[in-house]
Design goal:
201 residues; Arc Repressor Mutant, subunit A
Amino acid sequence: MAEARRRTRGSLTPAQILEGAFALAERVGLDGLSMPELARSLDIPVTSLYWHYRRKDELLRAMAEEALVAQAQLLPAVGTSSSWHAYLEDWFTALRDLYRRHDVLADLIVVRVDLHTDVAERLAAESRQRIADCLVAAGFDARVAARIVGALTVYTHGAVLAERNALRRLGGPVVGEADADFAFGLQTLVRGFERRLRAAR
């Protein structure tokens, strides 16, 4: 009788399946996420999942695309800060905070780059380009602007991964001046870019 009360095939949309997958992954991690367990959490036959996603890696690729969409929506938009350097500091600080709050987003965007489809790569490139356009408007050469965004992305991703490794090694929250250290490094980089811009004028 319990089986008869389950949702029928096609009763869930891909968006609903992805929402359930993110919720489950937040509890068990990407490695612990399985199609049978996801089906149980959604109260559907596992064959209903395969109707939309034939394999787990297809589901994970769809999740990576959705993660990049969510990232763009959750981070500061261009024009919300008082200046281009304040925007860089605000955006990359918010990026770090987002990854620290949501391990699954960090895994999908920073760690599991093998999951990135052409769509995911386009979304990531569009996000970087929006920041670069802000820098070009401030007077930077387009190629320099792209390199600045790349450098700050590497810095932020590296900081997140280093903190996660320390967390696993210590078995608890990272103790120390992680926030202050990150802010100091970010501000130092941005001030260096500012000096470069002044020198080029």
